[in-house]
C-alpha cells in the first residue's frame, strides 16, 4: 500500500502557550480584594402584574456577590456602600439596574422582553441578532416542533423550513433522508448528501445523540454566506442544534411523556384466495393442488403487519445561580414497528455543569451525553416483497405447526413471509457517547476566548441469525453474522471573539483553529454457518462447522484514521444598525485527499441593508421591518471519504479471491483502486439574494430568497481508464458539476390576537430546479451514468434512471408504453419509432420525467383559546414523479398461478406477457397533500409555587393524504442518486394516535 501521508499539526502550541499566558494574566488582574460590607439591601421583585417573581438573579454589579429571589420574590444581599449598583436579571425580562445610595429597601418591577428569545440566531461560533443577519438562516424554536413518535430529531423539521425536504417511511430503525435546496453531489456514502450537524458548538456530532424533548432550538443555515465558516463539510447546508439549559435565576424540573398507537395507513389491494381462484378459472387456468392451493384464504399483509404501541418518557432538571449552571435529562423511548419483530428501544442520558470564576470572567463547563439504542429488525427486502407476491391460496403452517414452504416454486414471492420473520432476525446494539469540555474566558472587555475539546465514541454491534428452517439458508444448518465496530472522533476548537461598539459602528471579529481526528472501523465482521442446533444463535461462533474456508466470510472494512485541520476567521460590521457587512474565510486541510490538494480555501461575503431603519421610513407605519440581503460564498463537501480515498489500494480483486500456492489455498492480493494525488473536495458556490419584511408591527412577517447553487469538482469513482496506464480500469476523480436554483418564501402572521383568543399561521413554499451540467473534462470523459437496476422478471440488467448533463438527478429512462394491441398484449415504442409487442431492447428506453419536486410546501396553524390550544400542519410536494416498480412487478397475469396479483391486474388480459415490464406506464405523479399533524391540548396552571403548569394533549399524525399515487404512500425516499423509486422495499407509512402530558415544576 502506498505510504499514507498525514497532515502535520501546524505550529499551534506556541500560539496557544502565549494566549494562555495572556489569559491567566488578564484573569488575575480581575481578582480584587473585597472590603467588609457595611450593610444589607432587602426587597421584593415583581412582574408587570405585581406578582412576585421567584428565581430572579440579584447581584452587585462588578462583583461576585449575588443571590436568588425566593418563592415570594424576596431577596437579601450584602452591600459595601452607596456606590454599589444592584443588578436584577431574569431570562425573558429586561435587566434592571438600581444604585444603592442610601437605600435599605429596593423593590423593583421587571418588564417582559418579548423579543429576547425570538431575536437570537446561532450563526456558527457565535450568535447574532436577527436584524444583523446577512445570510439565509431559518430558526425553529421548540414550541414550533412537530409532535409525534419521532425516532430522530430531523423529523422535528418536516414541513417547517422552506427548501428542506425530510422523507421517512414507517420503519422505526430507518433514518430520514434530509436534502436541503436540492442534491449537490452524485455520491451517497457516509452522508454525502446530508446537511452538516453541529450540536451545542460541537461540529459533526451525531444528531441521534439527542432526545427531541432536550432540544431548545434548531437553526438551519442554507446559503454559503452562512455555512462557509464550516468549510469543507458545509456544502449541503448546516443544521445547528441548541439544547435546553436552565435560564439565569431559574430552577426547573419537567416531565414529558406520551403513549401512542400506530397502524398501517394503507395496504395494497391484493386478491384474496377465492378471488385469485375465480380469476384463474375465468381464464381457463387452475392452481396445482396442495402445493399452490390448499383451500386457504390468507391475507399475508395482515399476518405480517400489526398495531405498534410506543411510549416515551423524558425527565429534565436544571438550575442556574450566580456562579453555577447545571442540569440533566433522562429519556426512554420504546417504539414497536408495524411489521412484526421490528422495534427500537433508546435510552438517552445527558448532564452538564458550568462553573463561573473571577467575577464571571472564567467559565468551565462539562457536558456528557449518551444514547444507547437497541433495535430488532427483519430481512425487509424479502418480507416486503413476499407479503405481496406470496400465494393467498396457501396457509402459513403445516399440520405439525412448521411453516409451509415450497422451495421448488418459481417466480416472485417464493418464501413464506411469516417464516422469513420468525426464522431470521437482526439485532443491533448501538451506543453513542459525547463528552465535551469547555473553557470560556473574558480576557478584557469585548474579547472572549473559547476552548472546547470533545470526544465522540460510537460502538455498534450487529448480530443476525438465519436458523435451520430459514428459507434464506436452505441446507446450511444456520448462518450467523457478528460485527463489532467502534468509531471515535476527537475535535478541538479554539477561537477568539471580539465585539466592539464605537459610536454608530459595531464590529465583531472571529479567529479560530480546529483539529479533528476520526478513527473508523476499529473492529471486525464475520459470517459462518453449519451449527448443530439453533439454541445459541449467533453466540459462540466457534461451534459452527463450515465445510471449507469459503463458508467463512470476513468483512472488508479496513480501519482508518482521518485528520482535518482548519483555520478560520470572520468579520461582521454594522453602521447605525442600517448597513451590514460580513466576510469569512476558512482554510481546511484533510488527509482524505490527494497530496497535491490537501488544503482548500472557502470564502464568503455578504451584506445587508435595514431599509426600515432609514429616516425616510420613519413615517411608513405600515412597515416595521424591511431588510435586503445579498451574499456569495463557497463551501465544500468531504463527507463519505476515508483516509485511503486518494491512494493506491491493494486488496482482493473481485472474482479472483483465492488461488493455489505451494499446495495451499491463498488469498489473492492486487490493486483494487488507483491513486489520485489531485483528488480534492467538491466545492459548492452559492449566490443568495433575500428580503426580510415585517408589516403591522410584525403581525405579518416573512422572507423571500432567490439562490443559485453551483457545485463543481463532482467526484465519481467509476470513470473508465486504460489498464495500460493504470492498475485498475476505473478511476476516482473530480470532473462533474451540478446546479440548483430556486426561490423560497416563508410567511408568519398573527391573524387574530384578542384577550382570550389567538390565531397564528406559518406558510413556507420552495421551488428548486436541479440540473447535471457536466460529467467530463479533457482527461476523463463520460456521457452519462446509468443507475437504478431494479431487477424483476427478465430485467436484471436493465437501468431505470440516468445521470446525464442537461437533466436533473433522478431522471427516469424507461420504455415508452403504447397501449395494448388487438390481442390485449402491452406494446412499446422502439428507438426507431416502430411499435413492438415483445420486450424491447435496453437501447429503446426514453427519458421520461424526474423525481425532483417542483414545489414543496408546509402550512401550520396554532390556535389558543384561554387554556386550550389547537395546532395542525399540512405539508406536501408537487410536480415530482414516482416509478411504481412494485405495481409493475405485481402486474403479471401470466404468472398468477405461482404468485398473487393485485385487483389492478384483473382488468388486464391474461395473455399479456409484457404487462409486468417496468415502463413509463408505471411512472406516476408523486404529488400529495398530507394532514401531517393535528394536536389538541389543555394547559392547567394550579395556584401553587411548586407546579408551574401541566399540559394534557392528544395528537394524530398522518391523518389523511390526498394523492393520485397508487402505491402505499407517495412519500418515497428522495435522497441518494436513485430518488423516487418504489420497488417492493417501502416499509409502510403509519397513522399514529398519541396522548401525552407535559409538566413543569
TrEMBL record:
TonB-dependent receptor-like beta-barrel domain residues: 389-959
- Give Gene Ontology CC terms: cell outer membrane
UniProt entry tagged with the keyword Transcription: no
- InterPro entries this protein is in? Beta-barrel_TonB (IPR000531), Beta-barrel_TonB_sf (IPR036942), CarboxyPept-like_regulatory (IPR008969), Plug_dom (IPR012910), Plug_dom_sf (IPR037066), TonB-dep_OMP_SusC/RagA (IPR023996), TonB-dep_OMP_SusC/RagA_CS (IPR023997), TonB-dep_rcpt-like (IPR039426)
**Segment forming the signal sequence:** 1-35
Q: Quote any Pfam family the record assigns.
A: Plug
Predominantly, its location class is membrane
Keywords, A to Z, come to: Cell outer membrane, Membrane, Receptor, Signal, TonB box, Transmembrane, Transmembrane beta strand, Transport
Residues covered by the TonB-dependent receptor plug domain: 130-238
Task: Indicate where this protein resides in the cell.
Answer: Cell outer membrane
- What membrane topology term does the record carry? Multi-pass membrane protein
Matches recorded under Gene3D superfamilies: Carboxypeptidase-like, regulatory domain, TonB-dependent receptor, beta-barrel domain, TonB-dependent receptor, plug domain
Similarity-based family: Belongs to the TonB-dependent receptor family.
The protein in question is named Iron complex outermembrane receptor protein
**Species the sequence originates in:** Chitinophaga ginsengisoli
Amino acid at each position: 500500500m502506498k505510504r499514507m501521508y498525514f497532515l502535520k499539526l501546524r505550529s499551534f502550541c506556541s500560539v496557544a502557550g502565549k494566549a494562555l499566558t495572556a489569559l491567566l494574566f488578564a484573569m488575575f488582574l480581575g481578582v480584587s480584594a473585597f472590603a467588609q460590607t457595611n450593610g444589607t439591601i432587602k426587597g421584593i421583585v415583581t412582574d408587570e402584574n405585581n406578582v412576585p417573581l421567584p428565581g430572579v438573579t440579584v447581584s452587585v454589579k462588578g462583583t461576585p456577590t449575588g443571590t436568588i429571589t425566593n418563592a415570594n420574590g424576596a431577596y437579601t444581599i450584602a452591600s459595601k456602600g452607596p456606590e454599589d449598583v444592584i443588578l436584577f436579571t431574569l431570562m425573558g425580562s429586561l435587566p434592571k439596574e438600581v444604585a444603592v445610595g442610601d437605600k435599605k429597601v429596593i423593590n423593583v418591577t421587571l418588564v417582559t422582553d418579548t423579543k429576547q428569545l425570538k431575536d437570537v440566531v446561532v450563526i456558527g461560533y457565535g450568535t447574532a441578532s436577527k436584524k444583523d443577519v446577512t445570510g439565509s438562516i431559518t430558526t425553529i424554536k421548540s414550541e414550533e416542533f412537530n409532535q409525534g413518535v419521532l425516532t430522530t430529531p430531523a423529523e422535528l423539521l418536516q414541513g417547517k423550513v422552506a427548501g428542506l425536504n425530510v422523507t421517512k417511511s414507517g420503519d422505526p430503525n430507518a433514518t430520514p433522508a434530509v436534502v436541503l435546496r436540492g442534491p449537490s453531489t452524485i455520491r451517497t456514502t457516509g452522508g454525502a448528501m446530508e446537511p452538516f450537524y453541529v450540536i451545542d458548538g460541537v461540529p459533526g456530532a451525531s444528531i441521534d445523540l439527542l432526545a427531541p424533548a432536550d432540544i431548545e432550538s434548531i437553526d438551519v443555515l442554507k446559503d454559503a454566506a452562512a455555512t462557509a465558516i464550516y468549510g469543507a463539510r458545509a456544502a449541503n447546508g448546516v443544521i445547528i442544534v441548541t439544547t435546553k439549559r436552565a435560564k439565569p435565576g431559574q430552577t426547573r424540573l419537567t416531565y414529558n411523556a406520551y403513549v401512542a398507537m400506530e397502524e398501517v395507513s394503507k395496504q395494497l389491494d391484493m386478491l384474496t384466495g377465492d378471488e385469485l381462484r375465480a380469476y384463474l378459472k375465468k381464464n381457463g387456468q387452475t392452481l396445482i393442488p396442495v402445493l399452490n392451493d390448499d383451500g386457504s384464504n390468507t391475507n399475508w399483509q395482515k399476518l405480517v403487519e400489526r398495531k405498534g404501541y410506543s411510549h416515551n418518557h423524558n425527565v429534565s432538571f436544571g438550575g442556574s445561580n450566580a456562579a453555577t449552571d447545571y442540569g440533566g435529562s433522562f429519556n426512554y423511548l420504546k417504539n414497536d414497528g408495524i411489521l412484526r419483530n421490528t422495534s427500537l428501544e433508546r435510552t438517552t442520558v445527558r448532564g452538564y455543569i458550568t462553573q463561573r470564576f473571577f467575577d464571571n470572567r472564567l467559565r468551565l463547563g462539562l457536558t456528557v451525553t449518551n444514547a444507547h439504542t437497541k433495535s430488532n429488525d427483519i430481512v425487509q427486502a424479502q418480507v416486503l416483497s413476499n407479503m405481496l407476491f406470496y400465494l393467498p391460496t396457501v396457509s402459513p403452517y403445516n399440520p405439525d405447526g412448521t411453516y409451509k414452504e415450497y422451495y421448488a416454486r418459481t417466480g416472485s414471492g417464493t418464501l413464506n413471509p411469516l417464516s422469513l420473520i420468525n426464522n431470521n432476525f437482526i439485532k443491533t446494539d448501538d451506543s453513542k457517547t459525547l463528552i465535551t469540555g469547555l473553557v470560556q474566558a473574558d480576557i478584557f472587555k469585548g474579547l472572549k476566548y473559547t476552548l472546547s475539546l470533545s470526544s465522540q465514541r460510537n460502538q455498534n454491534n450487529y448480530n443476525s441469525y438465519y436458523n435451520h428452517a430459514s428459507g434464506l439458508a436452505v441446507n446450511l444448518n444456520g448462518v450467523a453474522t457478528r460485527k463489532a465496530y467502534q468509531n471515535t472522533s476527537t475535535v478541538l476548537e479554539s477561537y477568539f471573539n471580539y465585539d466592539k461598539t464605537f459610536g454608530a459602528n459595531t464590529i465583531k471579529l472571529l479567529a479560530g483553529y480546529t483539529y479533528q481526528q476520526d478513527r473508523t472501523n476499529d473492529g471486525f465482521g464475520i459470517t459462518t454457518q453449519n451449527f448443530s442446533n439453533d439454541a445459541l444463535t449467533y453466540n459462540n461462533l466457534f461451534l459452527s462447522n463450515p465445510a471449507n474456508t469459503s463458508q467463512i466470510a470476513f468483512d472488508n472494512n479496513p480501519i482508518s484514521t482521518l485528520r482535518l485541520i482548519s483555520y478560520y476567521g470572520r468579520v461582521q460590521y454594522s453602521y447605525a444598525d442600517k448597513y451590514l457587512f460580513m466576510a469569512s474565510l476558512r482554510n481546511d486541510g484533510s488527509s482524505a485527499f490527494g497530496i497535491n490538494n490537501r488544503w482548500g480555501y472557502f470564502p464568503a461575503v455578504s451584506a445587508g441593508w435595514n431599509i426600515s431603519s432609514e429616516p425616510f421610513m420613519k413615517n411608513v407605519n405600515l412597515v416595521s421591518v424591511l431588510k435586503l440581503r445579498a451574499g456569495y460564498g463557497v463551501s465544500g463537501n468531504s463527507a463519505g471519504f476515508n483516509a485511503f480515498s486518494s491512494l493506491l489500494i491493494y486488496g482482493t480483486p473481485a472474482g479472483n479471491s483465492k488461488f493455489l500456492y505451494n499446495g495451499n489455498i491463498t488469498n489473492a492480493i492486487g490493486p483494487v483502486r488507483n491513486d489520485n494525488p489531485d483528488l480534492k473536495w467538491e466545492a459548492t458556490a452559492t449566490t443568495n439574494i433575500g428580503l426580510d419584511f415585517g408589516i403591522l408591527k410584525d403581525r405579518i412577517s416573512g422572507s423571500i430568497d432567490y439562490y443559485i447553487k453551483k457545485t463543481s469538482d463532482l467526484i465519481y469513482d467509476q470513470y473508465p481508464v486504460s489498464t495500460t496506464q493504470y492498475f485498475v480500469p476505473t478511476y476516482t476523480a473530480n470532473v462533474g458539476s451540478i446546479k440548483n436554483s430556486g426561490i423560497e418564501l416563508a410567511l408568519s402572521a398573527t391573524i387574530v390576537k384578542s384577550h382570550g383568543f389567538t390565531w397564528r399561521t406559518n406558510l413556507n413554499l420552495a421551488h428548486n430546479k436541479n440540473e447535471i451540467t457536466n460529467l467530463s473534462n479533457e482527461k476523463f470523459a463520460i456521457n452519462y451514468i446509468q443507475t437504478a437496476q431494479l431487477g424483476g422478471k427478465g430485467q436484471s440488467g436493465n437501468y431505470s434512471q440516468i445521470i446525464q448533463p442537461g437533466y436533473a438527478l433522478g431522471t427516469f429512462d424507461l420504455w415508452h408504453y403504447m397501449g395494448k394491441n388487438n390481442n390485449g398484449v402491452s406494446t412499446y415504442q422502439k428507438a426507431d419509432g416502430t411499435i413492438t409487442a415483445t420486450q424491447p431492447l435496453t437501447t429503446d428506453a426514453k427519458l421520461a420525467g424526474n423525481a425532483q419536486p417542483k414545489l414543496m410546501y408546509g402550512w401550520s396553524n396554532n390556535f389558543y383559546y384561554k387554556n386550550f390550544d389547537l395546532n395542525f400542519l399540512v405539508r406536501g410536494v408537487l410536480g415530482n414523479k414516482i416509478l411504481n416498480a412494485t405495481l409493475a412487478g405485481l402486474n403479471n397475469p401470466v404468472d398468477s398461478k405461482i404468485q398473487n396479483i393485485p385487483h389492478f391486474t384483473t382488468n388486464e388480459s391474461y395473455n399479456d406477457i409484457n404487462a409486468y415490464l417496468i415502463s413509463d406506464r408505471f411512472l406516476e405523479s408523486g404529488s400529495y397533500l398530507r394532514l401531517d399533524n393535528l394536536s389538541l391540548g389543555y394547559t392547567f396552571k394550579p395556584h401553587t409555587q411548586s407546579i408551574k403548569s401541566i399540559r394534557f394533549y392528544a395528537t394524530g399524525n398522518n391523518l389523511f393524504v390526498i394523492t393520485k399515487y397508487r402505491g402505499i404512500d407517495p412519500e418515497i425516499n428522495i435522497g441518494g442518486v436513485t430518488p423516487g423509486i418504489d420497488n417492493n422495499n417501502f416499509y409502510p407509512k403509519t397513522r399514529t394516535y398519541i396522548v401525552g402530558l407535559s409538566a413543569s415544576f
